[in-house]
Amino acid sequence: QERLVESGGGWLQPGGSLRLSCAASGSIFEISPMGWYRSAPEKQRELVATIFNSGKTNYRDSVKGRFTITRDHTKTIVFLQMNSLKPEDTAVYFCNTVPPRPNWGNGTLVTVSS
Known about the structure:
single chain; 114 residues; mainly beta; six-stranded mixed β-sheet; four-stranded antiparallel β-sheet; 10 strands; 47% strand
């Protein structure tokens, strides 16, 4: 059964760092490009970072140089290292394939505020 479980969110001040984790159960997640998405109040969900099976990564312009997406060797856990966080990074963060499959996890809330 496919399942996505995100964790690692929290509240922190601008400039801080956080590492998000996504446990992906299901063989489809091991062979697909994976991404981190985020959903902020009154905004559409957006793709933040992608990692391909080759190891190549892509990032949304607003997070380039600050966020890093990685994957463990089993390809069942996907991480998002977030540095130099800004208030506009506040959102619920989700992981999923790229493009996304229909079922989403509950996400993990990141709040950046002074």
